[in-house]
Amino acid sequence: MLAISDHQLNQALTTKVIRSFWLIGVLNNAPWVLMLACAPSISSGGVALVFLSNQIPGLIVKISAPYWFHDVSYKTRMLVASISMGLACILVGFGGLIRNEISGVTNDSGKDGLSGIALELIGVSFISFQCSLGEASALALAGKFDSLILPSLNPSSQYSVLSDLNSTNGCCEEEYKENYRDGGDDESYGDVIEDSHQEKVKQMNYCITAFSSGTGLAGIFGYGYKYLLSELLGWGLSSVVFSVVLFAVCYYAIFYHGLHELEEQELDTSSQANAEGYVLGHQNTPRIHMLESSLLATARYNEFGETNNVEMISRLEKNASQTIVDPSRPQQPQLTSRERFNLVLSLWLYTIPLFTVYAAEYMLQAGVWSAIGFPVTSATARAQFYHYSNWSYQLGVFVSRSSGNLFSVSLSVLWLMPMLQVGNLVFFLLNSVHHFWYNYSLLLPCFFAGLLGGGVYVQAYSRLNLDFPVDLREFAIASAGVADSLGILVADVASLFIQSCIYDRNGIEGAAVKCLTS
User: Taking the CB of residue 249, how many other CB atoms lie within 10 A of it?
Assistant: First the structure.
């Protein structure tokens, strides 16, 4: 009876963890989406300023993350993210009140009005900082829960990933190491590991998929929240963003009570097993050495027919072969700044697809879809198509980001999906000029664009959590996020010229910049 009770308790805790990651995903990205939805209200003549304020601080966070995340606990990072979210809403809200008050009195914003806009833009910058800090931290923490915490709660169930991989390592390690150094073609070790990962992929990434699904819903939720309060209830900008302060409180409360307390509890109860040299939650399974994990990562890279990170592997073999994975500390070896930089560069198998798919889909949203309408010469028609195309896209993102536990893809397919998104971009570019398929059935390829974008996101991070050694997973997942931020920034700049050229070809005036080909 006691065993059944313990099992039910662990299952309840597992469900709580997955639900917490999903809610954190929604709350982490919803304010960011809300700020984009409010961009015309913040600065109708300078929407680009809002977009840049909503991108650059977050990009700085993700670029610098590999060099300081390991020194700051998840608790501190999530607390700072929560405070930043609340502060951002207060700044944007008061900035809007100042601007509206000055405009209402003088009918001219002037310097005082500009100070209100400045407060709003600073607030938007805090949201960018919060979103990127929270996303990179939560994704890395999700990988940790999938790899260590959930297996400890369910040691005899489908979560028992580490023990399976460790036993596989033991049976084939020597054979593989000899083969690896001789440059042979025998792939028996890699095949065994590949098969093991394919069997376990659905079970390993519940938390990553839950967070990804939440971020997918955040797009729909953010725009819907703005529409409900502004359009249906008649709330002003300040009232809408002031209400989001409640999100910040819930955000940290869900993290602390849903994840942090359980993480601390699991680490405390694992201390005895850790001292005796066993995997967290598996009293009969020795902990995985960094050497074994590094060889596992190398075997996974061989899917593309080449070996990456050879120097890093050699260093780990030489300096850390006796180092064991300690779940009570951040799962990262001691690396110099140069080695961290090189390791970030070695993530190109995952970051290039992320960069490409984000750049293509944001060029679609900001550059192409804003220049399509039926008829295209009608500003109202263009605004209407932009509205519906983005809803279709967000729905596709939500569906695909929720699919991480339904199937997994190979690296080849992960690279194929961004190429399809680029093809989608080319199709819409040609169609926006030649109008060969020009009606609301275009919402179907808009939905498809969302499927591709969300699919690359969840599959890339899921594969990072599978392909990298345990001691490097959190680092790899947190570092890879810079790719999507760079893709969005490039797309925001390119979209100004894309929209201008489409306007020029369709005889529409009002573009913010001049088309380079006109």
Answer: 13
